[in-house]
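TL;DR need structure tokens for one chain.
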Amino acid sequence: MYNVERIWRAMKARCYTGNNPAYIDCTVCKEWMIDYKAFEDWFIDNLYDCGDEHLELDKDLFSTDKKIYSPETCCLLPKRINTMLAYKKSSFSIFPTGITITASGKYQAIVYSGHGYIRDTFPTVEQAVDFYCKMKERNIKRLAVGYEKYLPDRIYDALINYKCKI
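>> reply
TL;DR here they are.
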């Protein structure tokens, strides 16, 4: 079901090919960089049943800087949760993640809900950021509860206690 070697190669490529601005300054720990077997062992040890849902390698939930793949900072997450945790900031934007400016000069917050996007417009960037963080935290907690029967305790607890950082 999982091609672990392909996942290992893709992880390294994201960090070291320079093709994706979201992975600038991203690294892979030395152990995983040079030792496929170490990564494979970690992957198998951390694999869990999630029904029909595919699990993805995540570096964001347990990492403070969101920039390193390692046994301490990574976990496997259902795709819907992993997508919600992703920090996708346009390299062209001067605004925080999830915030854009409208033609009328207002600030729009755009938050992925797990099913689609929630948008709202605010007069200040601070209000937009506040809305974005509250909605992101709420949506992550909602998904965690929905996946509770599948998630390992460590992952469930981290999701329930998730705090948005922009």
